[in-house]
Specification:
Structural class: alpha/beta
Low-confidence stretches: none
Strand order of the largest sheet: 1-2-4-3-5-6-7-8
Distance between the termini: 27 Å
Strand content: 15-25%
Largest sheet: 8 strands, mixed
Helix content: 40-55%
Mean pLDDT: 97
Radius of gyration: 18 Å
Order of helices and strands: EEEHEHEHEHHHHHEHEH
Number of strands: 8
């Protein structure tokens, strides 16, 4: 793995990114957009799997995540402009930097969890650049639900500031996620059936931190954008899109939200949309017991669309 750094579009922060290159000829590129309260290097095992298949893999730490912070106090804080477009343009900067070295090699994009919503917005803007998109651990929320969530965030910020970390808002957003898995061993049992993965996540100081009001506002904003008809209708009709998720993932409403997103893409006229839900799997399917099957299905999708 190679570490690279470049200036964020916030004008203040240095973005950290990871590059995993295959030993031989590069068949194509897969860019990963990571999820909430985690970071790019967590995808090393998956990237190394793709390397063995001949693919270069890249991923950046978003603002407020991993090494893309000025101090640890910035973990869970996006940017003072409260602009999700800045994160989109940081993702774009990495893509353009990689393409300088890989030229016209087929380029795929994968977004997980929060990153899946950024990915859905991203392909509405730059979808013509890609040979395919993998939407992982995603879902669908109504505009009214997201408006209400942002209202609570903005009220809290009015009285406590944009850097406040609200237990109430965190409970509002994630408090129900463990209900299906009672008696829960940890607060993060919903992430994975695999207890070793959950324990690693909990022990990692760069995972599981509480979002600030600033980042929650950005999170709800990007989900609202991703789920809007305007965004979905802007996705190129010929872009192959593959939805993958755990059937027991609360982010995707246990499959119902994933299927709704899939149906919206089909209704929008996107010609090649597919979906796989993994039985008895939760949110982090690349780290759950189904990971080998997930990797096999993703590389099958990529190889089917590489030309």
């Amino acid at each position: 793995m190679k570490d690279i750094y470049f200036p964020s579009h916030d004008g203040e922060t240095t973005i950290h990114a990871c590059i995993w290159a295959p030993e031989g000829e590069i068949k194509g590129v897969v860019q990963i957009i990571h999820g909430m309260a985690e970071y790019a290097a967590r995808y090393a095992p998956f990237a190394e799997f793709l390397n063995k298949q001949g693919f270069l893999v890249c991923a950046d730490d978003h603002l407020g995540h991993g090494q893309s912070v000025k101090t640890k106090d910035d973990l869970g804080y996006f940017n003072k402009k409260r602009d999700t477009g800045i994160i989109i343009e940081d993702i774009r900067a990495l893509q353009l930097a990689v393409k300088k070295h890989t030229g016209d090699k087929p380029y795929f994009i994968l977004g997980h969890s929060m990153g899946s919503f950024f990915c859905r917005k991203y392909i509405s803007l730059y979808g013509e650049d890609f040979a395919g998109a993998i939407i992982m651990g995603s879902g669908f929320k109504s505009g009214a639900t997201l408006f209400g969530a942002q209202f609570f965030v903005r009220c809290n910020a009015l009285f406590r500031g944009w850097r406040n970390r609200s237990k109430f808002i965190t409970k509002l957003a994630f408090g129900s996620y463990n209900k299906k898995f009672k008696p829960a061993r940890t607060e993060n049992d919903w992430l994975s059936k695999n207890t070793e993965n959950v324990d690693k996540y909990e022990a990692d100081e760069l995972c599981g931190f509480t979002f600030t009001n600033n980042a929650y506002n950005g999170l709800f904003s990007i989900i609202k954008q991703a789920c809007s008809s305007k965004t979905i209708n802007a996705v190129p009709k010929k872009l192959p899109v593959y939805f993958v998720a755990g059937a027991d993932d609360p982010v995707g409403d246990y499959g119902k939200g994933v299927k709704k997103a899939y149906d919206k893409f089909v209704k929008a006229g996107i010609e090649d949309v597919s979906i796989t839900l993994y039985d008895d799997a939760r949110h982090e399917i690349l780290n759950d017991d189904c990971k080998d099957k997930v990797c096999a299905d993703i590389i099958e999708f990529i190889n089917a669309h590489i030309n």
